[in-house]
Amino acid sequence: MPARRIIPCLDVRDGRVVKGVRFENIRDAGDPVECTRRYEAEGADELVMLDISATDDGRETALDTVRRVAEALFIPLTVGGGVRTIDDFRALLRAGADRVAINTAAVRDPELLAACAREFGVQAVVLSCDAKRVSDSRWEVMVRSGRESSGLDAVEWCARAAALGAGEILLTSVDRDGTASGFDLPLLRAVADAVPVGVIASGGAGDVAHFTEAIEIGGARAVLAASLFHDRRLTIAAVKNALSAAGIPVRMELS
């Protein structure tokens, strides 16, 4: 089993890190560069930065914030928010992103995933899927920062996106986001079983056991958290120690 990754997430609005619950009640959580340096020093394997207002406001991801964060990092950086065209994708890579996550624009135009994969390689393309439970065994894809339902079945959409060229799936449970109640394990398992690429679990981390469950039960190859780390309720080292104790391989050395 390859090493599983622990990924802090920076949700950014107007150049500040913010966090909410179920995509609402947004609060300030700090400066993105300060957060970046702290997480890398603590042993994060990767960083995800999402401009949560870019799509809703109809503007591009703030490239200056991406540049500032990228300059402070040595670990891989994935950036998403406001990506509508292949030129937007290219601009984020040039600003310092290693990978780019696409959500709403991919739903509107699935061929954008294929075009970006052809141009930049599948390793650079991440599908960001925000999924909301509509029944015991069905989840719908949400767009525009979780505000609007696309009507698409989330499991089917992730499978299609992987076939089009997405190299990894960033899967967020809208219902669990910011609740610290644990990941939606049935959702994770359903998507992991449906795609040939890795799934990043997002939405619901509250304690170390949740990370272990996401990997062992949900089939995730990486686990992402935001407020849990921002509020210092849990450290990356504590998560990695727990995973290692459970027999799950992780990268233990600090950057």
Task: Give a short overview.
The chain is α/β, with parallel strands linked by helices. It has a single domain, classed as Alpha-Beta Barrel (TIM Barrel), CATH 3.20.20. The protein is 36% helix and 29% strand.
Overview of this structure, please?
Helix content is 36%, strand content 29%. The protein has 255 residues and is α/β, with parallel strands linked by helices. It has one domain (5-245): Aldolase class I (TIM Barrel, Alpha-Beta Barrel), CATH 3.20.20. Strands 1-4-5-6-7-10-11-12 form an eight-stranded parallel beta barrel, surrounded by seven helices. Helix 7 (154-164) runs parallel beside helix 8 (185-194) and helix 9 crosses helix 11 (236-245). The two termini are 22 Å apart. The mean pLDDT is 90.
What's the CATH topology name?
A: TIM Barrel
Helix and strand pattern: EEEHEHHEHEHHEEEHEHEHEHH
CATH superfamily grouping: Aldolase class I
Number of strands: 12
Please give the alpha-carbon distance between the first and last residues: 22 Å
The CATH architecture is: Alpha-Beta Barrel
- What is the total number of structural domains? 1
Helical region count? 11
- Ranges with pLDDT <50 over ≥5 residues? none
CATH classification, class level? Alpha Beta
Shape: globular
Rg estimate, integer Å: 16 Å
Please summarize the sheet with the most strands.
Answer: 8 strands, parallel, barrel
Q: Helix share of residues?
A: 25-40%
Structural class: alpha/beta
Strand adjacency order, main sheet: 1-4-5-6-7-10-11-12
Beta percentage is 25-35%
Q: How would you state the average pLDDT, rounded?
A: 90
